[in-house]
Fold this protein.
Amino acid sequence: MPENRYVHGYSSRESERLADQAETLTSLLHNDTRFPAGSRVLEVGCGTGAQTIILARNSPGALITSVDISNDSLQRAEKMVRQEGITNVTFQQGDIFHLPVVLGSFDHIFVCFVLEHLAEPGLALLHLYPFLKDGGTITVIEGDHGSTFFHPENEDASLAVHCLVKLQQQTGGNALIGRQLYPLVRGAGYRNVHVSPRMVYIDASRPELVEGFTKLTFTAMVEGVGQEVLKQGMMNADSWARGIAALYRTAEPDGVFCYTFFKATARK
Amino acid sequence: MPENRYVHGYSSRESERLADQAETLTSLLHNDTRFPAGSRVLEVGCGTGAQTIILARNSPGALITSVDISNDSLQRAEKMVRQEGITNVTFQQGDIFHLPVVLGSFDHIFVCFVLEHLAEPGLALLHLYPFLKDGGTITVIEGDHGSTFFHPENEDASLAVHCLVKLQQQTGGNALIGRQLYPLVRGAGYRNVHVSPRMVYIDASRPELVEGFTKLTFTAMVEGVGQEVLKQGMMNADSWARGIAALYRTAEPDGVFCYTFFKATARK
């Protein structure tokens, strides 16, 4: 999920939040990603390893190379993976545009919650292309903050969500990238591009998602940029407080919350 | 789909549009609605019969009673149903609050694109309850214009879509009702309420939906309220024209369009 900076995972609270979120969304986002035993998988931008663990568990026979720009994140990821007893992941430090791996050596590439942070996501996809073997596949997962809607409606809450979009823009990222995966992946020359939306639909009959997503993931993420929003004067303090309260209000028994992730798969 | 009036189907162009739309969306919205042979089904607000045909085809053994407030719509619906050789539907004229049918006589009630037009949708659901046999089910399908998003983003296009929402409000309806189905159905006393979102996700790999939904259904529907929007001064003519052009722009090869319907099922 988008944050107002390129690199995730510097605080332990953030790390916990990402782990909670990953748990809640695992089945929705990842259940149809299984890589065969012996296949070589490159995970680009693994961060603190929230997705790495899921990947490795779902494809226990695959040989996964997980790369991130941040050594701090890599250390956390490696620690968590070791604690889980996972042995099929190798970590390497590197930027998406300067990957420490061999061209044409991967059967699969996996990119999750990374493109949203990049000023040139299409160029990144183009850059990844030659690292695939012929016929290899790429999987890309991104959220889209503009897909957010809820009941009861509330203008302050919508403004607060839009602040996230603007903050992401300020850092050169794009919090509305989910909807663009088809043209982005297609435009980078991949074929057989298939995009499927994955809506997190939450009403009172789904209490784990009310807790795990509406409150602990999404609203917590919005709350997390409050200081920056107020500092920049993007909203005043009252409006912001009302917006946050209104987001929590959607977690009440008569509330509803919707957010859509997009998953693209394609072939070299 | 919402329109700026209570009763659909007065023009033949409108009737064609609804038929096109029903065809495109049939599988997404209706494939999991099958009523057993011999079961008695009440369709409330059948309009010109776009959904009636689908219902009757998918449940050929069910005995369907389709009710609408408009005699004109009923005549069109009856004509279409007869042309299709469908024999398991009976039409009756009546208002949702004054139904010409017997209490406790139905195994299933089906309500599609009706609640959006009502000032008191919860009351309508409450009113339908006693027409079900004990253990009978209700199925409710509604769209939600606030779920619309697309690429490329365009402010005029968003304003144009919002005009539909405001016009629906003026007539006492609610174009954002889809997201509210869970609390509405639950609040009317039904049990086992289950709501599932049905997103129409459209990119260039799905040309039938680009034509059938983005252009012929959604954008045509927005275009259809243009005169009223301009008359009321909700947008100026230039902004409106740019908005409509931007909606068509989402149907280009690099465009994407998303709209979500909601389907609720529940039991008496």
Summary: Chain B touches chain A through 30 residues (CB under 8 Å). Residues 61 and 237 of chain B are 51 Å apart (CA to CA).
